[in-house]
Amino acid sequence: MFTKALSLALLAAVNIVSAADMPTISAVGAKFFFSNGTQYYIKGVAYQLTSLDPLTNVTQCMLDAASMADLGANSIRVYHVDSTADHDACMSAFASYGIYLWLDLDTFDSQFNQALPAWNQTQLSAFEDVLDEFQQYDNLAGVFVANEALTLLNGSDTAPFVKAAIRDVKAYRQSKNYRDIPIGYSGADIPSLRPMLQNYLACGSDPADSADFFSLNVYEWCGQSSFDGSGYNELVQNATGLQIPIFISETGCRIPKPRTFDDMDSILGKDMEDVFSGAIVYEWIEETNDYGLISYGPKVNDMTNTAALDGYIRTGTPMPVSPDYSNLKGHWATLHPTGVALSAYSASASSLTPIACPSSTVNGWIVDPTQSLPSVGQTIDLAATSTGGLGGSATGNAKPSSTAKKGDAAAMHTGNEVAGMGVGLVGVMLGFLFWL
Ligand SMILES: *[C@@H]1O[C@H](CO)[C@@H](O)[C@H](O)[C@H]1NC(C)=O
Ligand SMILES: *[C@@H]1O[C@H](CO)[C@@H](O)[C@H](O)[C@H]1NC(C)=O
Ligand SMILES: *[C@@H]1O[C@H](CO)[C@@H](O)[C@H](O)[C@H]1NC(C)=O
Ligand SMILES: *[C@@H]1O[C@H](CO)[C@@H](O)[C@H](O)[C@H]1NC(C)=O
Ligand SMILES: *[C@@H]1O[C@H](CO)[C@@H](O)[C@H](O)[C@H]1NC(C)=O
């Protein structure tokens, strides 16, 4: 009885503020703006309670959203959702607390595989299904086509496939007349790779081919550090001139304990607020990796307890991990960057020019920025790669990437756009094959 009454009360509360009443978020130049013209800075938490979709249980969503609002969060990041589930109640629950969603479009069976770089129709269709489901919610802030698809410098041959995914999901968004939901990428914490990847995804003269934003997972500010000591100053230097928004999609370091979150003063303060659009803290739930801001109860050793996984309870009332939670809350309570009004910024935004594409280096960043992006269905020709892909030239009568981009989305479903392509087409300094 009590539970039912509580659920009904929660649902009633949820209905008061619908997800449809929130200002939407879009990328303009190098910044994000609410549709009312105020600049948007992310104060986020990574929210993934198990490997399953966390946005289907409204009772749980309400409990967590209320606690996140107390923490001062305005955003969550979710890594895995089920596009066939109903998300209305949870999206409204978060909306009722002013909380936006950053969502990974990929999941375990649709994500990129660095060992065999490819971009195929199965992946694209899965990404489209997720976008179809979530585009209806005004508090969808943006989506990632991948998280940490490249983790090794020698994995740079995956970058063209990531950029192809961005191109194709953007084309799909336009074809469906969805609003300009920002579509971007979340990069791994690899300083030797990151600046090239960031600039590669952003560069090029046709905005339809480039990311709407870049974001990076950063674990560099540990314990007592500083803007200069942490290397965050280099993050700003390396993002200067980037014509799209950039933010931290995961932070931060948890050793030494406790986490003090002093980096928030730089990210959301004068050190970085001109270039960065905030950060998402990793992560909400305390689990084996020990990054949690809250727990749902003490660790359990009873492996028959179905509410627990790996000894951690996964549902219930969130309880702050102390003092980490209050440390973060304390920082966020004092940080209210206002940035610039859209009306004052839009003229200069439209005069921004794309950042230069990174040049390729032997044994380093091997992507040739002058080569066209792969089409749906292409994969790496490992043989061509190992027998001297470097310096290889484009062969075959491939249509330029703009064909897939500007053609109607239906063409992609027929696979027509790959017809006539020769095996051995080089879209990077590597060979591509395509799936048949
Ligand atoms: C725009 O909306 C945001 C989010 O609701 C709010 O914080 C901000 O104050 C609003 N700005 C204006 C000018 O109303
Ligand atoms: C498409 O890519 C996914 C993810 O890499 C892979 O699991 C799947 O087997 C591929 N499908 C086809 C038809 O090639
Ligand atoms: C890439 O580098 C990793 C280690 O840094 C290595 O294990 C892997 O074999 C390399 N891959 C290729 C294709 O050379
Ligand atoms: C900034 O870019 C330089 C040059 O590419 C690179 O060596 C450095 O590691 C980058 N710094 C960070 C923090 O990403
Ligand atoms: C939904 O969340 C509530 C609150 O934590 C929990 O009691 C319930 O078991 C959850 N329901 C499902 C189906 O997981």
What's the helix and strand layout?
Blueprint: H1 2-16, E1 25-28, E2 31-34, E3 42-46, H2 58-71, E4 75-78, H3 88-95, E5 100-104, E6 118-119, H4 121-134, E7 140-147, H5 159-175, E8 183-187, H6 194-202, E9 213-217, H7 232-239, E10 246-251, H8 263-267, E11 276-281, E12 294-295, E13 308-309, E14 312-313, E15 319-320, H9 324-334, H10 342-350, E16 378-381, H11 382-386, H12 401-406, H13 409-414, E17 426-428, E18 430-434
Parallel strand pairs: 3-4, 3-11, 4-5, 5-7, 7-8, 8-9, 9-10, 10-11
Antiparallel strand pairs: 1-2, 6-16, 12-15, 13-14, 16-18, 17-18
For the termini, the CA-CA separation is 57 Å
Q: Measured on Cα atoms, how large is the radius of gyration?
A: 22 Å
- Hetero compounds: 2-acetamido-2-deoxy-beta-D-glucopyranose
Overall shape: it is globular
Uncertain residue ranges: 1-16, 386-436
Beta fraction of the residues?
15-25%
The largest beta-sheet arranges its strands as 3-4-5-7-8-9-10-11
Mean of pLDDT:
85
| Computed structural class | alpha/beta
Q: Helix fraction? A: 25-40%
Instruction: Report the major sheet.
Output: 8 strands, parallel, barrel
Find the count of extended strands (DSSP E, 2+ residues).
18
Tally of helical segments: 13
Question: Can you describe what's shown?
Answer:
It is found in: Cell membrane. Keywords: Glycoprotein, GPI-anchor, Lipoprotein, Membrane, Signal, Transferase, Transmembrane, Transmembrane helix. It is a lipid-anchor; GPI-anchor. 29% of the residues lie in helices and 17% in strands. The protein is α/β, with parallel strands linked by helices and 436 residues long. Strands 3-4-5-7-8-9-10-11 form an 8-stranded parallel barrel, surrounded by 4 helices. The protein has a 4-stranded antiparallel sheet with strand order 6-16-18-17. Helix 1 crosses helix 3 (88-95), helix 2 runs parallel beside helix 3 and helix 4 packs across helix 5. The radius of gyration is 22 Å and the shape is globular. Mean pLDDT is 85; it is low at 1-16 and 386-436. One 2-acetamido-2-deoxy-beta-D-glucopyranose binds at residues 109-110, 113, 118, 120, 122-123, 435.
